[in-house]
Design a protein that fits this description.
Layout: H1 9-12, E1 23-34, E2 49-55, E3 58-61, E4 66-68, E5 73-85, E6 89-101, E7 106-120, H2 121-124, E8 129-133, E9 137-141, E10 145-151, E11 154-165
Antiparallel strand pairs: 1-5, 1-11, 2-3, 2-6, 4-5, 6-7, 8-9, 9-11, 10-11
Length: about 180
Amino acid sequence: GLLGKGANCAEAIPCKPSWRGRTFKLGFFVHSVSLPALDGARLADGKRPTVMVSCGEKTKPTEMGDWSDDRKYWTFGEVLTMEVGQSDDACIAVLNSKQMNLGVAQLALSTRCLGEVCVPVASVLPRLLMEDRDIDGLVYATPAITFDLFKDGAKVGRVEISFETKQPPPISQRTDDGPLCGCR
């Protein structure tokens, strides 16, 4: 036949393309964190939580959150931009660092994970909507999305994040058995 004896069309024409090669910058806008076990009104200043986003081998932290007495959660208002691929998972962890303020610098003494969630980047892409922002121009962004945080299999809180990129999101290719992909 066209491909030769014993050849498989999936080897010559991939139906499920690998998106790992095409990466793009995705902003993780960390809005807030709610952890019922971590009441900010009773914490010392050096024990405020941070949010860490990891994707592949790269990791970026936020600054420490600010406690909102009226809303009873931690606010961040910070964007972490990461280079991601459609097939990547973004792991979002809330950490509590014990720090000592030395006046000219802060020294991190220990860190513990308070809760985490892993989000497939591909699950976020369909939610990106085009927005025309005056200064930034066209941006693709999601509304704020709330994810449950887990530790040792138990739900311990929530994180609210929106996602944005200036690049159009990758378009998913057909993955069904179309006219060429069904042959063997």
